[in-house]
Amino acid sequence: MNINEFPKEVRSRLVPAPGGDLVYNCLGCSAVHGIDSLLYTCPECGSVLMIEDRDFDRHLEIPGPLWRKIFDFRKSLNIPALKGVYLFHEFVGPDMPLENIVWLGEGHTPAVEASPELQKKAGVRFFFKNEGQNPSASFKDRGMASAFSRINHLIKNGVLSDVLAICASTGDTSASAALYAAYLKPHVTSAVLLPRGKVTSQQLSQPLGNGAVVFEIPGVFDDCMKVVEELSETCEVALLNSKNAWRILGQESYSYEIAQDFSYDTGRLAVVVPIGNAGNITAVMNGFLKFHRAGIIETLPKIIGVQSSHANPVFRYYSEEDPSRRRFSPVSVKPSVAQAAMIGNPVSMPRVIRLAEEYEKIAGQKKFFVVEVSEQQIMDWQLTANRYGNIACTHGGESLAGLVNAKGQGIVTDEDVAVLDSTAHMLKFAGFQQMYFENNFPQHYGITPHSSLVNVPQAVQPPGFCEQPETDSRDEEEFGTFVKETAKIIAGRLGLKKKKVIP
Q: What is the chain's mean pLDDT, rounded?
């Protein structure tokens, strides 16, 4: 669409120019640092950082309704840099020149309403936001688009060269980082650290296919993260875990898209997000806070974080109702089907604490919640969702189980409309479905298959045939008998009725 065909009040604002005053802001000592280099923790106190736009108030000069028009009309532009998370350029990376933005097709994943029968079972109206439809098949691409665009920007400005991107991962982070690094070759290469034996074969194939150097480390994700942190502090590498504040900026687009998907009417929404390293739920809260501050949305939605009982440090922290008595303690994790959430010491916990407090202060009421689910619930609800025509990974099952528990606890009401984060494509976790169907989960998962959800292939062997007749030089009469007998067996098992013969 030609830009001159848009309404006059939005024309000059549709293609954004670089602006803003971005800095690193330390959540520990409140120190401010420039963004001309990559920082992951505060050089003064070691705490995690957030990106702050010190010129954010310029956004308030534009009324909320006009912002909505800008974003809605911008979607019609055929400019690749603005097709992904940078559609919301002024809020994601306002200082970024469009020519430095890396877009691989991430963002704008569909919010698909759950089937009527599944909504009946859950007891609430809800949508799955299918993040598995991102390029590497997970939500991680949102943050990587931002982080690698920043790296690309620094390379083009001569600040960086020959970048080695490195991350610890339970699967999706490594797949995403390797993909975006491969796109920027030869200037960027990648290495990933994975916990040995705790990443699905499908996820492992992704960084290998993109040419990353893959290291399998004994232990769990938290152990891999410690090694990566050591490398980032002692070597010239670019850390791509959610400790990287640029990752958080990109993931904030999840909130902006939900607002746009629901015509910026967020008052009745309950957004359900699995908690792993706590970067995503941080981004979700911060995104809605920014849109609220700018007047783009009028009411903050409920935010519901979900954790498995096998990795629940955030749930334990918020189980203490008195904020003055809360003390964060890492936990030793057990194996979980929600592998990306199997983290006992989330690096973004300080961000969660700060933003949850701010979120509820601005909302004027309790709007941040954390619920716990069992491994059994995760698998049962994932399979149930897929059984009713939805695309849910194990983390989508975790979100749905969390929604059902939140409804049972009165956190979600009949008036609410929920948006569930299905963080990756279900095919990445097909192995867990197979373990469920074959009833061979190791005992420590605590999962027992329900017969109503088990589905296995049925062998069909017509009598008199040891195998299918040979294709080459087969006897047509014999093959015809094979077809008829096979169809008869299948019709019998399905309870099919014969067609009525019309005279």
A: 94
